[in-house]
Amino acid sequence: MREVVIVEAVRTPVGKRNGGLSGVHPADLSAMVLTTLAERTRLDPGIVDDVIWGCVSQVGDQSSNIGRYAVLAAGWPETVPGTTINRACGSSQQALDFAVHAVMSGQQDVVVAGGVEVMSRVPLGAAKASGAPYGPKALARYDNFQFNQGVGAEMIAQKWGLSRSRLDEFASLSHDRAATALDNGAFDNQIVPVSTESGVIAVDECVRRGTNVDKLAALKPVFQDDGVIHAGNSSQIADGAAALLVTTPDRARELGLTPIVRYCAGAVTGADPVLMLTGPIPATEKVLNKAGIDLPEVGVFEVNEAFASVPLAWLAETGADPALVNPWGGAIALGHPLGGSGAILMTRMIHHMRYNGIRYGLQTMCEGGGTANATLVELSA
């Protein structure tokens, strides 16, 4: 198998619901990161073997293989194909894995992975509106439980003994870290400014400065009257896109490109679909075993903050250092544009690794249906 590297990673700002990016069609938003990726690497798009694009709600503006229409919107040659995949919230992380598999196997040499979700235009759950996606047999297997991520997040909090105050402390920390990263310009080199009719959007919009436990305590639980999960300790509905350029070290040298990270290992696993969001725990163990790396060797973790109970349960089970988890904040503060989030997290993580000289980084993402991806990368010398 060939070695695989990521040589560039870019993302749009993450726009809040009905915010600065809401007027941009998802194909056009995707095209902006594809265009910038080619410009920054001086890449001839014609040599790209495939564009693998994650998107969750593939209806309306995001239907009909948005990965292909992103390529066309970017003005890339018609010979460049594109495909769209859905592994729920991990869609663009899986897109990266599929891109790596193609290059690693020798079937392709240069692949772009990424994803998009403009939730302002295609609301959460829009794909379920006209049907019953789970089917009677799957529902019957679980006593007709109506699969629900928020209910699963409540069950996780109960199982791991996570109090409302503990969840809110974590949520407040996410906002604090994201605000500090913004103030320090940590995201500047990875963000693609987006021109809109209302002006240029160049900064993540979701961060709520001054968030604290007292303010969060005023919010009502969403999924249970006596519950602990509410809007303030959950990921924010958001808009965004990201793209990563994947190739081999030899091809990168031929193209005059310097890799950022080497792909070490990837894993995907299933878990209890009722709890639904615990998959990152076994996925982390699986990817570390595949790579032959011990958890203390990892210098940064991106654990998607779908709900605060998810990374907190992950921390309790893995014993990782909390200071190394989501150091620039996570989806509670920065938003979670579903199909784009995997690529956005990877973009944030590998830039953090480069800025701070961190050797290993691990990203993991809980996903609807009870699956999870985990990816381990190593900073290139």
Brief characterization of the structure:
The protein is α+β, with helices and mostly antiparallel strands and 381 residues long.
Would you write up a description of this structure?
- It holds the Pfam family Thiolase_N.
- The chain is α+β, with helices and mostly antiparallel strands.
- The protein contains twelve helices and twelve strands.
- Strands 1, 2, 3, 4, 5, 8, 9, 10, 11 and 12 form a ten-stranded mixed β-sheet that branches. It has a two-stranded antiparallel sheet with strand order 6-7.
- The protein is globular, with a radius of gyration of 19 Å.
- The mean pLDDT is 97.
Layout of secondary structure:
Layout: E1 5-11, E2 15-16, H1 26-41, E3 50-54, H2 66-73, E4 82-85, H3 91-105, E5 111-118, H4 136-141, H5 149-159, H6 164-183, E6 194-196, E7 199-201, H7 213-216, E8 238-247, H8 249-254, E9 261-270, H9 280-291, E10 300-303, H10 309-318, H11 331-334, H12 338-356, E11 360-367, E12 371-379
Parallel strand pairs: 3-4, 3-5, 10-11
Antiparallel strand pairs: 1-8, 1-9, 2-8, 5-8, 6-7, 9-12, 11-12
> In total, how many beta strands?
12
Provide the residue-averaged pLDDT. 97
Give the CA-CA distance, first to last residue.
20 Å
Strand portion: 15-25%
Entry keywords:
34% helix, ten-stranded mixed β-sheet, single chain, 381 residues, alpha+beta
